[in-house]
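call fold(seq) -> tokens
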Amino acid sequence: MEVFEELAHGTPPLLGSQLSALCRASADAKACRELCTQQYPRYQQLVALLTHALNHDEMSKNKLAALATLTNFAKHKIARDELYKALKNIDTMFEETLREKAESAESFGTALGKLHSTMLVFMMRVFGYHVRGAELFEYANNKMSFALDLLVEVFKVPTYEPELTANCCTALLDMCTPTKGATEDVRQFQARIELIIDNVMKHNIIAVASTAIKDHLKKTETSGGIMGNAIHASINALVKTILNLYTYSSQGTTASALRQSLLVWTDLISQTLVGYMNLSVREIERCLDTELATFKHPILPILPHGILTALKCMAFGTFHLGHHAKNKLLIYLLRSTNSFFASLFALPIQEFIVNHLDLYAVLLHYNVNIDSLAGEHSIPDDIVIPEACKSAAHLRSISQLLSALPREDIEALWRTLATNSMSIPLARDNLSFDLLAHLVDESIAREGVVGSPPDTILKLNCDQLDEVALALDKRMEALEQDNPEVAPLRKEVKEAKEKEKETPKENLRLLGDLPTLGPPGSAAAAAPPSAVAVPASPSSPDDIDTSTAIPALRVQPSKAQEVWATAGQGAGDVPKEFLCAINGHLLRHPVTAPSGHTFEKETIDIWLTKVGSTNPLTGETLKAEDLKPDEALEVRILNWHIDKNSAANANTEEEDDMYAF
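ret:
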């Protein structure tokens, strides 16, 4: 306070030593608050002196000291009105300094000047952490790489408040979000997305942002407090950014590269999102704990919404990556930290679960993609899977929930999973999917009677799970016997699998599920593979008779298949021509075969690499050069995405209020 009192009555220009002293003093938050609340006239005088230094001091280090002082003042809401006036009084001389430094950094590859990132922090604080992507782009002289560099510089400072991280994430999302009626067309927007992806990967922006959020989560966990809205907003914006990059990227960027960057090159999923999930579930449990009468309050909508958003990113990022040897360890580690699954399933059914079935659909989606229901027999001994994270525990939790839900809720849950799989890939070729489909099928068949015994779970050990896998292979053989015309294709698939075992290749397992081995147009071809029929567990779930665990195979379409087939039939849902003919995923880069079938380019390329020159649906000869890009359809799909996104943005007032900070 002494420095403030001494220099407030000074006359411009302030000396470099005086500016440095003010900068050090302004780092004292308590002193700044007292200055702004108890000695406002002196505060106004200091702001005027500092603004003069920004405009007229020729020394860059003095400008930086003055700007850093103003930026420290801007932490305090009460100080911002005066700083807003100061911002308007910054003249062209200071702006010219910023422009020269930006050009110098770009021309000679020098480190980004501290002046620019400090100015960005100043603006974000003065504007209440609501600097939009367009404003950031303009501030960066309309240079995308420079704008993203600025965000990285802010993300990297661990002492910055969560609100700054949130503003950086929302600005990044703005730049990745299309606007209906904008001057740029679809292809121009797609080119912008490619430029952003190049810079995101070059500067590892997702990793830097993830670290910043993770630091805030650690502080919250250590303090035992609750997460502020800024942390929720950061997660929400970063996840939406990632999904937008995936949705709007051109053929130059593969989906596998984006997933690889999420799972392998960053700790976003393995640490940041897992940590966020655990804290969010803890807060929900506190809200519902009747013993904590002083804490109990209604669950804020931001908690389940945040969990839902995080799980979407986790499901997207883990799709089929576990099939590559170098990623298996990461998938195993994710399974070992999957304790939030049990915690979410332990929440009250009527008070929470039935109101958030969409959340549980994505939770199941994620667990299918990491194959967490298929046992632990393939996991190395040195990786410890806690009991709560083991397949048997998860299967028990799912069975208990399904036994307590009415049929309409079970169907809604399953239909939501099917609909989500159109836009976020679902590994339907995993054993976990078949086991889940069986539980759903059996629950629908028994009408989902409320009040069923709570512990009717099928509890399988590793040997029994191996038997299930063997039974599934037998079912495929039975399908072949019923449909002899697909026998040659079945043989090619087997030969390709044997060849893959001998010479494993990377990046060859992106198919959501291989085409059902049934004649085109049949019920088997239209529906996902049904699970093997496994009976409900006996009264003692630990004493299952393995001789009866795998009954006769079922070839006819199941109840679960019938519900799955109705997904997406509601008004405004995905048009059928926008879906890949192989796996039903939403097309990104459609290519059309001479047979008239349309496939996702990356998916059919992988099929042809694995199996050979064979059409997966007709068995006819098909070569890569026979596939023709359908650019008109791709543009239609992109415009559909933009229209859907614009409609969603027009009705986000409730979400904006939810994430306000």
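The radius of gyration is 28 Å.
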